[in-house]
Amino acid sequence: MAVVHLEYCIKRAHINKSDIEFNQTLEGLNALNALNALTHENSQYDLFKLFSKLEFEWSWSNADELDNVSDIFEVDSDFVIALNKDNSKIRFLTLDDKIYMTAQVFFSLNLLRESNQEDLQDLIDENSLYFCGYVNGDWTYLIDDGCSLHVLGLTV
């Protein structure tokens, strides 16, 4: 069975600060100060300890035309991936008392039949499969600068 390796990106997602919940180890810390510290220290490891929940959710029902992709992707189940330093890159920016997040998530999907990278990327773009992904930290987004999904490679 072939596997496609993908990168999901969300750019400058404005996070609703009132939704953020920190682990007990950071009780009493102001969210903005904690995120500023992470931004300046550029410490990816601490970031994953900072939030009680940080995961990537994939829901096939959010695709524009699921029928168009069900003959090549296994679309029978949604999934959730716990994010860590090995499968994601997440950056926070604080600006004018607002919190923004940019994230890259790396994951793989099984293919029902072989294809090439260019055809898969066209299929992904034509059916807006980036809508299937969501970085969940138990917060909501007020707005973002867009999402994308890129084919990184294939394993046959």
Quick synopsis:
By secondary structure, this protein is of the alpha+beta class. Helix content is 21%, strand content 37%.
Count of the separate structural domains: 1
Sequence stretches where pLDDT stays below 50 over 5 or more residues: 24-29
Q: Which sheet architecture does the biggest sheet show?
A: 5 strands, antiparallel
Strand content: 35-45%
Question: Would you count the extended β strands for me?
Answer: 8
Radius of gyration of CA atoms, rounded to a whole number: 17 Å
- Structural category: alpha+beta
Number of helices: 4
Distance between the termini: 6 Å
- The percentage helix is 10-25%
Instruction: Tell me, rounded to a whole number, the average pLDDT.
Output: 82
- What global shape is seen? elongated
Q: Would you give an account of this structure?
A:
- Helices cover 21% and strands 37% of the residues.
- It is built from 4 helices and 8 strands; from the N terminus they run E-H-H-E-H-E-E-E-H-E-E-E.
- Strands 1, 4, 5, 7 and 8 form a 5-stranded antiparallel beta sheet that branches. Strands 3-2-6 form a 3-stranded antiparallel beta sheet, with no helix packed on it.
- The longest helix is centred in the first third of the chain and has 11 residues, at 31-41.
- The chain is elongated and about 45 Å long.
Question: Helix and strand layout, with pairings?
Answer:
Layout: E1 3-15, H1 31-41, H2 44-50, E2 55-58, H3 66-69, E3 79-82, E4 88-95, E5 98-110, H4 117-126, E6 133-136, E7 141-143, E8 147-155
